[in-house]
UniProtKB/TrEMBL annotation, chain A:
<protein>
    <recommendedName>
        <fullName>Aminotransferase class V domain-containing protein</fullName>
    </recommendedName>
</protein>
<dbReference type="InterPro" id="IPR015421">
    <property type="entry name" value="PyrdxlP-dep_Trfase_major"/>
</dbReference>
<feature type="compositionally biased region" description="Polar residues">
    <location>
        <begin position="1"/>
        <end position="16"/>
    </location>
</feature>
<dbReference type="InterPro" id="IPR015424">
    <property type="entry name" value="PyrdxlP-dep_Trfase"/>
</dbReference>
<feature type="region of interest" description="Disordered">
    <location>
        <begin position="1"/>
        <end position="21"/>
    </location>
</feature>
<keyword id="KW-0663">Pyridoxal phosphate</keyword>
<dbReference type="Pfam" id="PF00266">
    <property type="entry name" value="Aminotran_5"/>
</dbReference>
<dbReference type="InterPro" id="IPR000192">
    <property type="entry name" value="Aminotrans_V_dom"/>
</dbReference>
<feature type="domain" description="Aminotransferase class V">
    <location>
        <begin position="91"/>
        <end position="276"/>
    </location>
</feature>
From TrEMBL, chain B:
<dbReference type="InterPro" id="IPR015421">
    <property type="entry name" value="PyrdxlP-dep_Trfase_major"/>
</dbReference>
<dbReference type="Pfam" id="PF00266">
    <property type="entry name" value="Aminotran_5"/>
</dbReference>
<dbReference type="InterPro" id="IPR015424">
    <property type="entry name" value="PyrdxlP-dep_Trfase"/>
</dbReference>
<keyword id="KW-0663">Pyridoxal phosphate</keyword>
<protein>
    <recommendedName>
        <fullName>Aminotransferase class V domain-containing protein</fullName>
    </recommendedName>
</protein>
<dbReference type="GO" id="GO:0080146">
    <property type="term" value="F:L-cysteine desulfhydrase activity"/>
</dbReference>
<dbReference type="GO" id="GO:0019450">
    <property type="term" value="P:L-cysteine catabolic process to pyruvate"/>
</dbReference>
<dbReference type="InterPro" id="IPR000192">
    <property type="entry name" value="Aminotrans_V_dom"/>
</dbReference>
<feature type="domain" description="Aminotransferase class V">
    <location>
        <begin position="84"/>
        <end position="270"/>
    </location>
</feature>
Amino acid sequence: MASQSHPYLNGDSNTHIPKKPKLSSLSSSFITEAEIQSEFSHHDSTIARINNGSFGCCPSSISNSQQHLQLQFLSQPDHFYFSHLKPGILRSRTLLQSLINAQHLDEISIVDNATTAAAIVLQNIAWSFAEGKFNQGDVAIMLHYAYGAVKKSIEAYLTRAGGHVIEVHLPFPVNSNEEIVFEFRKALEKGKENGRKVRLAVIDHITSMPTVVIPVKELVRICREEGVDQVFVDATHGIGCTDVDMQDIGADFYTSNLHKWFFCPPSIAFLYCRKSSQCLDLHHPVVTHEYGNGLAVESAWIGARDYSAQLVVPKVFEFVDRFEGGIEGIKKRNHENVVKMGQMLAKVWGTNLGCPPEMCASMIMVGLPACLGISSDLDTLKLRTHLRDKFGVEVPIYYRAPKDGEVDLVTGYARISYQVYNKVDDYHKFRDAINELVGDGFTCTLLRG
Amino acid sequence: MGEKEELRNGDYVAKKPKLLKLSISDPEYLLASEFSHHEPGTARINNGSFGCCPESIIAAQRTWQLRFLKQPDHFYFSTLRPNLSKSRAVVKTLINASDLDEVSLVDNATTAAAIVLQQVGRRFSQINDTVVMFHCAFPAIKKSIQAYVTRAGASVIEVRLPFPVNSDSEIIAEFRKGLSKAKSNGGKVRLAIIDHITSMPSVLVPVRELVEICREQGVDQVFVDAAHAIGSVPIDVQEIGADFYVSNLYKWFFAPPSVAFLYCRKSNSSSSTMHHPVVSHEYGNGLPIESSWIGTRDYSPQLVIPTIIEFVNRFEGGIEGIMARNHEQVVKMGKMLAESWGTSLGSPPEMCASMIMVALPSKLCVTSDDDAFSLRSHLREKYKVEVPIYYRPPNEDDGENEPRHKDGLITGYTRISHQIYNKVEDYYKFRDAINQIVENQQVCKMLSTK
């Protein structure tokens, strides 16, 4: 740790005036390293937790605020329902509106997670087919690396309703945005064959496995040029990871989880629906008396349940502002650190990264030594379990199948994450675990059978 | 009586004593230990709306939440699924389902309705497909029908629930009438939605008989909305015989918000075509599995169900004992209020469970839903009494059978609940508040706070 310049002591002269300066010196009013570790002291200390991408994290001060809200409800639920709930959700939505630069508050709905947001958008598509607005065979485009739940949602709501799906094949490892744009254009052309209409493009902002930052702004522009009806950006990993500006990106629908990279408790996400979109008859699938009052209002009441994760958002904004540079500072440092750690690992193992540094945010794919013999998805799951159980390292593994003619290639990649609670030691632990496996002549065949 | 005695015993109760010498059924004890988080000074006689959660269960829930936050990947891969199965197994036994696959855990009855209605909507084929429901079905159900049934082109027939009601046969007669009407245009009745215990006004409905009638009359599928049932009345899904049955566990079964179970009869072939509207990678693996993973979220309310069984078994007679005592007390309190106000009950004692409707003095002049809401808010703010009020519009059909009071027509009812934390003082407080308002010659319109 000593050799690495401490991210929190960079006396950046552009820092804003801190709210409650404790001492007269420069940066001491920002959250300290010790305070950060204390906020995450509930994390299993025996595990090198380098998988923030899957389930995110929640600081204990936010958990405490959440518990306080839960107790407030339980104390007098009727009063809470009639007087506190709606204003609380409104407050959260207002904060999110400014965070993502949405023009109208109506455009922001809060839902459980991106999976729910996908169901909302796609259910609407299904109705369009059922009600004859779309023709049988009309097309939806999605990335081949779209998240499993989104693929299934498309199957459940679109294919089942008579739509046709075209997948954009992305190269991986990837070297430049151009490669992605090229494949996307190809898929769009295919979609428009035979006079079909492309009704929806589902584009990941940051793909999950393998992870890559997609040039969404450019792809949205191409969609508009090519007459795609609507664009839905699945930015599960968006907020707190990469830049999220609704005016800049220009999509019709945009969703991001807040419990992954924005320190909210499980679970909460927002769904942005551009007001100028043609089709604004979106509904939450769980229907209550609020049906017909607009998606945002419908989503704010889907029956009696625990809304505390949605109400705690203002506290999260306060938490984030304790860091130097706020969420922008956090994003920047996470990115720098994950690239640094990724490069360190790739160098030690003699492998490569899955993408250039500018095509990743707070996560990066790092090639694993080929001698580990990863040859299937099952291998990756078993290796992951082995790393967890035997070495105390939590990290997801991806199987990259060799294409025709490829030999001696890296077939396994680890997706490492970097979040504020991570330390260099976490990555050293991972580095050493893999080195030990390699040194022992370990291959995945040993885990089979 | 035993009232004074209860209070005296209460004085000796330390904050969190070990169980045994003192009756856990003693509300004073419970208020001090398991429900100390309830707002003090409020007469909370509305368990029906949002339920309650004892501190033992809250603590168990926190443990689960912390386990997830500590190492979520391990939790997801090793802990979540087996423990959800445990919860489902508990529910299966409670409701006498024949197969674990018939039991899914969802957020609430409203979610279950979306699941059932989406499935039914997919089966609509003819022009004259019809869905039958009670006119007083829960508002969310009515809107769900609009969203999934009406929008898909099917029609809806509402069965009037007679209220105030005197016997099961009144309900059965109306239901038969409704079914005939639904079949009269030659269409198929695709679904009948039957409340086990209606919400507002609240009445215990003879579901078994109504389901039988549905089978007799060739109704495709029957969905029982039993939001209030579990922890209120015994449930035997074999006996009841419906295709789908849902009940909320956070209302009367001490679960934290929120969890409900949805039972789908295996012998109904369409059970395998039921899907959760939030689609994850588990799509196609059956509703119980789909519902056990609908993306990252807090599943802790679903995981504490075995702990709830431990909790209720600390009471004499377990959940049966609790149900019996709640029923007895709510009837007693209902009668006490009706007597004090010179009014009546909305149903005979055997047609209610842990909630009962009590007519309000007509001098209050409840003439609209807004009036009912104003009165409710006033009771909460001025008297610290939490209780829902129901506006019962006069019905031309009833003529001389309209409910009457010494001072006029009865148009307002209150729905009182009784749960283990309630004391008689809660109901006295309510009794006195109403008497005070009447004495002050206030009517609902005067009470509007805005």
